[in-house]
Amino acid sequence: MATTIADNDRIVIVGGGIIGCLCAYYLRELGHRGAVTVLEPDPTYRFASTALSAASIRAQFATPVNVELSLFGIGFLRSVRELLHPETDIGLVENGYLILADEAAAAPRRQALAMQRSLGADIEEMDPAAVRARFPWLNVDDIAFATFGRTGEGWFDAWALLQSARRAALERNVTIKTDAAEAFETRGDRVTSVVCASHDRLEADWFINAAGALSGQVSAMLGTSIPIAPRKRTVFHFKAPVDAAGMPMLFDRSGAWMRPEGDGFIGGIQPHIDDDFDAHDDFEPHHELFHETLWPLLAQRVPALEELRLLSAWAGHYEMNLFDHNGIVGPSTDLPNFFYATGFSGHGVMHSPGVARGVAERLRFGAYRSIDLTPLSVGRIERNEPLPESAIY
Ligand SMILES: Cc1cc2nc3c(=O)[nH]c(=O)nc-3n(C[C@H](O)[C@H](O)[C@H](O)COP(=O)(O)OP(=O)(O)OC[C@H]3O[C@@H](n4cnc5c(N)ncnc54)[C@H](O)[C@@H]3O)c2cc1C
Fold this sequence. Notes:
Elements lengths: L10 E4 L3 H12 L6 E4 L9 H4 L3 E2 L6 H15 L1 H4 L13 E5 L1 H16 L4 E4 L1 H7 L10 E5 L4 E2 L2 H14 L3 E3 L3 E7 L2 E7 L4 E3 L2 E4 L5 H6 L7 E12 L9 E3 L5 E5 L2 E5 L18 H15 L7 E13 L6 E4 L6 E5 L5 H18 L13 H4 L11
Parallel strand pairs: 1-2, 1-12, 2-8, 4-14, 12-19
Antiparallel strand pairs: 3-7, 4-6, 5-6, 9-10, 10-11, 13-16, 13-17, 14-15, 15-16, 18-19
Flavin-adenine dinucleotide binds next to α1, α2, β13, β17 and α10.
């Protein structure tokens, strides 16, 4: 079958979060003229990961393709008004990530740093004295090494980005249908149509699975299995007597993180592996995690946080790739007109522009042009060749 789309081919994108909306946007930007329909059951995005994320961007990854996607992402975010809409305001703050390490982690981190810099990331290595001088509120007693993103790292408003991407897609004659995929029909190795919750049946030539934490479920409708599961992550919002001016996103060596948000801070940490199971419909914040784990760790790192006041908490789902914590992008092996754009395991908002552009390029031109996303293809899972991302939080 054809590996590129004809101009009038119909495309259905399952999932209208940031990945789905930007795939639609880039298909139009690259000149696709056929019908593009995004299926999104919930226009309020109440449970969408994009709306519940910490909306931060970093170039400090251990896998080269992730660094490239972040560099593409920051370029997109900086130019979002020209690219999506002149009224877009995503409030991008480039205060950097400060990632702390002990001696044991220093060697692999230095190796990753060299790779990040070779790809153009603006990351500085700091010794404990330099960290103390620049961030005097930080306890660096047990720190051997730190890296800091001078530019190209920070945070933004993911809700505003999503709304703007959705608007940009609609303005480019994309249909966003309030409906859910419930089943697919196939003929030979082609997916031919999707059957919706409304019982509507949409025929199409190409399909993209951008259903986020539920993309494993969507693939299962086709009898194919991808190792993506919804894993709950809680974000805590608190106030504390710490001067947030110029404060970066802080990643402690324990895995605890925090950054300024509004007139306070947000922070979080992965749950213990025994508490990290498939979340299904569970969006209840993991409250014990704050008192038992996060607060003690953060207060050890930032002593002024002993006086912290918890304001609120929310939980969302990572679309966790249980195989290697990296995205799955590109065509399915068995059904080549069914594409994946999922599995980003906590870094999907920052990587959405590069991933969406890549998916649109792969469809339009039959090959990636901006960033080679073949390392993220599903084939690695079938061959049991993980592309592990160690820098996950
Ligand atoms: C607490 C938390 C913090 C995070 N922090 C960051 C961060 O700092 N930086 C970062 O880059 N990433 C972060 N992430 C990850 C990021 O939010 C996701 O990787 C990203 O939002 C994925 O985008 P998406 O469009 O695939 O998913 P979503 O935004 O979840 O969109 C998927 C959509 O698919 C729809 N859908 C589901 N099933 C169907 C179906 N059957 N038919 C049709 N539609 C369907 C859903 O309704 C949903 O709207 C965080 C995530 C969480 C939970």
